[in-house]
Write a structure and sequence with these properties.
single chain; alpha+beta; 2 domains; 8-stranded mixed sheet; 5-stranded mixed sheet
Length: 423
């Protein structure tokens, strides 16, 4: 709410300033502002390596703001020296054109600031940070955290629609951020920024992508992991790491019944062309927080395939049991001491979007398919082989995801002898 007010004030103030400056000055400022916004958003990833190692949480915001400031201020100073005055036109025309150009310049500048703001590691506080999805509303639930401990009251406020559709984006009152992303997408598709891969093919919904990265991660938890340096924090597991199970799995909800009850089928399987795709990843010890936990949510992980984003629908336990998650669930993994956390991420993706059959038992992943975890860690999956098989059990990295007690009791009925890791 407060951020929306701030956007309104900034757009109004900048537009009025240009209105007062006159037509020529406003036209020059508008062109430079649009150019600077396109450069800042379109080329920010080229500079991510410079700031992501030291300031990973704020790197995107810093880079886009600095790029915009440099690209706007320097040309503006030059033009102000070359063209110090205005041109004479009828007053009404001068003010109308100056006002329109001022609004466009304001949308460009404030749009960049809005994108930078939404990329910061804020907590989900609707009073200040804009929410891009409608929530179901806060509910207080009494839960028993573990046997022998007293009951506690916990508050939950889940996203209303899961999975969300593209038209569920609430956005800002004045969509300056959408204006800037639309400008960059257009220029990248068929304009001055056109290249081998358009912006939209890498970021189908960039603003929603930033928002998803804030969901399901506690305040203070790392919002990013990186594989840009010498010691990547994300890897595919050694050996076979990609699977398309030919059959089904028993299915449980990750959340306890006290919080939500979903009518899930007892088993889950591929459905025609929509197949279950299991990606076995290792998260390095360097990616955990100070309490040895790796925090993530399905929203913070995506597979880019055929210009679309696909988020995990859950994880596998012991490579045998599917645990279903919503897009904004809080998920915690605890790797063994100084070892990688092995996690089996489960996606549901149309096969034609990401892979082609090569043999009766394998698929080959198409060009442009990328796995991204917590925004900065990316793995190009092009030409990787997918085994049409169930993933094997791996004892060394199994059971790294923490499960709630009530969920664990249900799991033991399906996986006799299951116990959480002790280390």
């Amino acid at each position: 709410m407060l951020f929306n007010f701030l956007v309104v004030v900034l757009v109004g103030a900048i537009a009025y300033y240009h209105y007062a400056q006159g037509m020529l000055s406003s036209m020059i400022s508008m062109v430079i502002a649009m150019f600077a916004a396109a450069i800042a958003i379109g080329y920010h990833e080229s500079f991510m390596g410079m700031a992501s190692n030291r300031l990973p949480e704020s790197a995107l915001a810093i880079i886009v703001v600095v790029l915009f400031a440099i690209t706007y201020i320097l040309p503006r100073l030059v033009f102000d020296k070359i063209v110090p005055g205005n041109v004479r036109v009828p007053l009404v025309m001068d003010k109308i054109i100056a006002g329109v150009c001022g609004i466009i310049a304001a949308l460009s500048a404030v749009g960049v600031l809005a994108v930078a703001f939404q990329s910061m590691p804020w907590s989900e506080t609707p009073a200040f940070v804009p929410s891009r999805l409608e929530h179901a509303g806060t509910q207080t639930v009494t839960v028993t955290p573990s046997p022998g401990k007293r009951e506690i009251d916990a508050e939950f406020n889940e996203v209303k629609k899961d999975p969300p559709a593209s038209d569920d984006d609430v956005g800002l009152w004045i969509p300056a951020d959408r204006f800037v992303i639309g400008l960059v997408s257009h220029q990248s598709d068929q304009g001055a920024l056109a290249g081998d891969r358009p912006f939209r093919s890498i970021h189908p919904n960039f603003l929603m992508q930033l928002y998803m990265g804030r969901l399901g991660i506690e305040t203070g938890g790392q919002r990013t992991v990186s594989n840009l340096g010498k010691n990547p924090e994300l890897r595919l597991a050694e050996g076979d790491a990609l699977f398309a199970p030919p059959g089904d799995f028993p299915q449980l909800d990750a959340e306890v019944d006290q919080i939500r009850k979903r009518n899930l089928d007892e088993r889950i399987s591929s459905n025609g062309n929509d197949i279950l795709f299991v990606v076995r990843v290792n998260i390095s010890w360097a990616a955990v927080d100070g309490d040895r936990l790796f925090r993530f949510s399905p929203g913070a992980i995506r597979i880019l395939a055929n210009g679309k984003d696909y988020h995990p629908i859950g994880t596998l336990e012991d490579a045998k049991l599917f645990i279903s998650n919503r897009i904004d669930d809080f998920v915690f993994a605890k790797p063994p001491q100084n070892t990688a956390a092995g996690i089996d991420l489960v996606f549901r993706i149309p096969r034609d979007d990401f892979a082609t059959p090569t043999t009766e038992t394998t698929l080959t992943i198409k060009e442009g398919v990328v796995l991204e975890v917590k925004r900065l860690a990316r793995l190009d999956l092009k030409d990787k082989v997918v085994q049409i098989a169930y993933p094997p059990y791996n004892e060394s990295t199994a059971r790294t995801i923490l499960r709630k007690n009530a969920t664990a009791e249900k799991m033991k009925k399906i996986l006799p002898g299951w116990e959480p890791r002790k280390d």
